[in-house]
Design goal:
A four-stranded antiparallel sheet has the order 2-3-1-4. The protein is α+β, with helices and mostly antiparallel strands and 107 residues long. A hairpin with a 7-residue loop joins β2 and β3. 20% of the residues lie in helices and 27% in strands.
Amino acid sequence: MNQGRKPYKFDTPAGYRIRIEGSLDQRWSECLCGMAISSASRPGEPTVTSLTGELADMAALMGVLNTVYDLGFTLLQLERLAGAEEEPALAAEAAAPAAPAESAGTP
């Protein structure tokens, strides 16, 4: 596990992509540590909102996740995005579009 890679630290900034089921207005960005908010939907499927951005540390990540939970959204995916100091293959993987998620009902 994690062979050849440095372990992630709890107190350092990192980029994240969080996908939730439902639509979240852009006005929530400030309450979510300035994360960029974008929504997409396909016919016959629920709307999926992506929150993307850099968070100061794991405590900030937990704050965002708690806000999402308190608002009643279903968490579909949490992805830590590779930074410039990490392996190039991981950075390329993080830049690739996420696969469609299966939905588990509306909030």
